[in-house]
Specification:
Radius of gyration: 21 Å
CATH class of the largest domain: Alpha Beta
Number of strands: 24
CATH architecture of the largest domain: Alpha-beta prism
Distance between the termini: 11 Å
Bound molecules: uridine-diphosphate-N-acetylglucosamine
Shape: globular
CATH topology of the largest domain: UDP-n-acetylglucosamine1-carboxyvinyl-transferase, Chain
Number of helices: 14
Strand content: 25-35%
Structural class: alpha/beta
Strand order of the largest sheet: 22-23-1-24
CATH superfamily of the largest domain: Enolpyruvate transferase domain
Number of domains: 2
């Protein structure tokens, strides 16, 4: 298994380009289930999760073509299977989101329950309740969701008990081909929802209000093929930006927008990081002094849970006491023991972490990545550490960051991906 070797203490300075969004791209791939015509996606990142999603779609009978330069073509002319196997779903939770499009297209689906995952319990009740309200009959048996619709899905008024990102996406996709109008209330507001609605509308769907709490979808008979550019990855952008101030330097990320990462930029600024932005770039530079902050993770437009681990690595080197309250997922502090081994002082009580920050706390040691965003926090800590850091189990990192070492090396990091000898 590959590992990363980082020689810390080098100032990062320069310009990098944001990749396409993993979280949006995966669902846009699933949208290809809603049409028998080709779906071409541009700026789709090359990630392990994207390969898993491709495998899932191929298992349904899809044809996949890699057109190079982050462009792919998917076509599901006809479905040979409507079963999403445990081995595919367990490695990537977004697979559960195939339930809606499969029900809309074929009227039936058998999807493995994702089970627990490293960052918590992650139930799917909101997805299932919503599908039932659209007319699906759902049974849980032997770890699988068996779903079926008698004739076709029927539009309904559905109030989500929590603005779940996955459930909003799943129900929005299902409703595009349902009979009549669906009104989704208390929807997730994440920019990825808007991106997905934009592509579906380009395919002929009738979706209004994406990005607001109420989404209205008028069902249509069929959707057509499309070519679409995936939006930028908000989380990769935030991670790259932090790498600048973390090392006393300055990083400009191009092909992204401040608007979609407003909460993160505001937090950066309240920590003393200087932020500049233009139409399609954001730059973060170390200010004169860093200041401690109290952070709460929340649904968009609040601070994303996916940036919590990276912010924690940063706050470890901000003198004074900061706190992070993780309100989205329980058990999402698995980076804490590893950051502590690198010299951080962090105390966790329930959903809250208290960070006793000080200047230059990190020293290089051997650490292990435990989940996707936790890995990113270890990379950031390694960049600012004294000495050499070795990060193992970087297959977690590869789920969500495309060649982060290449992007970081371009702006001055001494970082290498190595394979263990035979
Ligand atoms: C979540 C994040 C999303 C992030 C993604 C990948 C939020 C609100 N969502 O999306 O920004 O990109 O992880 O890391 O920050 N829940 C239920 N029942 C359900 C579905 C969800 O109880 O059926 C709960 C979850 O346990 C969790 C919360 O709702 O506490 C948020 O879940 P949801 O937004 O659905 O998670 P993801 O779609 O995975």
């Amino acid at each position: 298994m590959d590992y990363l070797q980082i020689e810390g203490g080098h100032r990062l300075e320069g310009v990098v380009e944001a990749g396409g969004s993993k979280n949006s791209g995966l669902i846009l791939m699933l949208c290809s289930l809603l049409t028998d015509e080709p779906v071409v996606l541009n700026r789709l990142p090359r990630l392990r999760d994207v390969t898993t999603m491709k495998d899932l779609l191929v298992s349904f009978g899809g044809a996949f073509e890699d057109l190079g330069s982050h462009k792919i073509k998917l076509q599901l002319s006809e479905l040979k299977s409507v079963e999403a196997d445990y081995d595919l779903v367990r490695t990537m939770r977004a697979s559960i989101t195939c339930l809606g499009p499969l029900l809309a297209r074929e009227g039936k689906a058998k999807v493995s329950l994702p089970g627990g995952c490293a960052i918590g319990n992650r139930p799917v009740d909101i997805h299932l309740d919503g599908m039932r309200q659209l007319g699906a009959e759902i049974h849980l048996r032997e770890g699988y969701i068996f779903a079926e619709v008698k004739s076709s899905l029927k539009g309904a008024k559905i109030i989500l008990p929590f603005p779940s990102v996955g459930a909003t996406e799943n129900l929005m996709m299902a409703a595009t081909l349902a009979e009549g109008e669906t009104i989704l209330k208390n929807c997730a507001l994440e920019p990825e929802i808007v991106d997905i609605a934009n592509m579906l509308n380009k395919m002929g769907a009738k979706i209004k209000g994406a990005g607001s709490k109420e989404i209205r979808i008028s069902g249509v008979h069929n959707l057509c093929g499309v070519e679409y550019d995936v939006m930028f990855d908000r989380i990769e952008t935030a991670t790259l930006l932090l790498a600048g101030p973390m090392t006393g330097g300055s990083v400009r990320v191009e092909k992204c927008r401040r608007n979609e990462i407003g909460a993160v930029c505001n937090i950066f600024e309240s920590c003393g990081i200087s932020i500049k932005s233009g139409d399609d770039w954001v730059e973060a530079s170390a200010g004169i002094d860093f200041k401690p902050v109290d952070i709460v993770t929340e649904p968009f437009p609040g601070c994303p849970t996916d940036v919590q681990a990276q912010l924690m690595a940063f706050l470890c080197q901000v003198p004074g006491g900061s706190t992070i309250d993780e309100r989205i997922f329980e058990n999402r502090f698995m980076h804490v023991p590893e950051l502590s081994r690198m010299g951080a002082e962090i105390y966790v009580k329930g959903s809250k972490a208290e960070i006793c920050g000080r200047k230059s706390p990190f020293h290089g040691v051997k650490v292990m990545a435990t989940d996707l965003r936790a890995s990113a926090s270890l990379v950031l800590a390694g960049l600012s550490a004294k000495g050499a850091t070795t990060i193992r189990r970087i297959y977690h990192l590869d789920r969500g960051y495309e060649q982060i070492e290449t992007k970081l090396a371009k702006i001055g990091a001494k970082i290498q991906r190595l394979s263990p000898g035979p």
